[in-house]
Each structure stands twice: as C-alpha cells, then as structure tokens.
Specification:
The protein is mainly α. The protein is elongated and about 55 Å long. It has two domains: 107 residues, no CATH class; 86 residues, no CATH class. α7 packs across α10, α8 runs antiparallel to α9 and α8 packs across α10. It is built from eleven helices and no strands. The two termini are 30 Å apart.
Length: 226
C-alpha cells in the first residue's frame, strides 16, 4: 500500500505531518530516547498505523499479523536478503523490548477509557493474588481473580488490535509496565471498590466510553448494495 494514499486525519497524530517526530517526542518522552537504526519517523508512522484505534489499517485489515506486516511495508521498514532485516523482524514479532516500550507508551498516550479500565483490573488482580498468597481466600476471591484475569487478556488484545491473537508475552509485559507508571495518575481504586462491593465486574460498565468499535474488514470488502 502506498503511504501517500493513506489518510490519518482521525488518528491522534497524522503520519504525513512534517513535524510528526517532534510532536510525538514532545508528548511522549520515551520516543526522545530512541537510538535504533531504523528512522524514528518510520517507527512513529508504523506505530500509528498499527496501533492507533482510529487507524485505517485496523479497520481494513482484519488479520493482526498481516496488518503488522503491511504497516511495515507501507512505512518502509528495512529488508534483509530474505524477509525483514533482523532489527525490523525483532520489532515485528514482539521481542524488541525498547520498541515494545514505545508501543505501550503510545497506547497509554491515547487516553482510552479501555486502557484506564485495564489499569484498574491489574490493580484488582494484584490485590486478589496477594490475598491468595496470604491464604486469605474463599470461593468469592477465586471467582473475582478468574474474571479479572480473563478480562485483562481480552482488553490487552483489544488495545493491541490483535483480536483473538494473543500478543507475545514480551509485548504484553511492556504494556503492563507502562500501566504501573500510569496508575499513579488515575484512580483504579474506583473500579476496585465496585468489584469488592458487587463481587463481579459491573455489567453496565462500558470501558469504551462513548466510542463505538467499528467492525474490521479486509481491504476491498464493501457493503452489499440494495
């Protein structure tokens, strides 16, 4: 796909903005620390296309790995003799720790209600795990921990835009580490209180706020006429 034909007027940053790198570095400190060989502009463009909730690539390419590959091709990640160059490949398969940190920081910077909800769930998971380790457990505790853990997995996949594909552990870890930093700035105890008082996740709690997730489709798909 030709990058010139991609519209990113709805993403938080426009990949065509001549000041894209400077704006992201100003807003997200970790980008200012990037020292890799692939240009930071390509890194920024890739992360926006692959992970911004309003990216046209997320709407148009349903398969997660296909989408990551297409985004890398679009922004011009370097190729090797066979496939991607080693540093690009590590980024794409999720084992580059620094790159994972950039993705996590970008997702955090989007300010999604879903991300705030994840932070609250991680806090609940930590509390309930501590209760189990302290042998202060009952059937109620086990149920809450089970529900919370399942929700964490589902929400993490949504934040990565990976659908049913379970992102590699190293990439997940970066997101959870970022959440530990961000929870200092919000109030996950509100969600914790809800769980403690009602024994389960509130059925009317909408982690998306007013945002409606669009159904993914493949490039070339269109709605039937008539």
């Amino acid at each position: 796909m030709d990058i010139k034909g991609i519209k990113t007027d709805k993403t938080k940053y426009d990949i065509h903005d001549k000041n894209l790198v400077e704006k992201i570095k100003k807003d997200i400190k970790v980008f200012d620390d990037y020292k890799g060989e692939i240009s930071l502009k390509k890194i920024c463009q890739y992360i926006i296309l692959a992970y911004d909730i309003n990216s046209p690539m997320i709407r148009e390419i349903n398969n997660y790995m296909q989408r990551k590959n297409e985004c890398a091709i679009t922004v011009g990640f370097p190729r090797g003799k066979v496939g991607w160059r080693e540093d690009a490949e590590k980024m794409l398969i999720g084992i580059d720790k620094k790159f994972n940190s950039l993705i996590a920081a970008y997702i955090s910077n989007l300010g999604l209600p879903l991300y705030t909800y994840l932070i609250g769930l991680l806090e609940i998971q930590a509390i309930k795990t501590k209760e189990i380790l302290n042998v202060s457990i009952d059937q109620h505790t086990h149920k809450i921990l089970k529900d919370v853990t399942e929700s964490i997995t589902a929400i993490t996949n949504k934040l990565f835009g990976s659908g049913e594909y379970d992102e590699i552990l190293a990439a997940k870890k970066a997101l959870y580490e970022q959440s530990n930093l961000d929870k200092l700035m919000i109030r996950p105890e509100i969600i914790v209180k809800e769980i403690e008082e009602h024994g389960e996740l509130p059925p009317d709690f909408n982690p998306y706020g007013d945002f409606e997730v669009e159904k993914s489709k493949f490039i070339g798909d269109s709605e039937p006429e008539g």
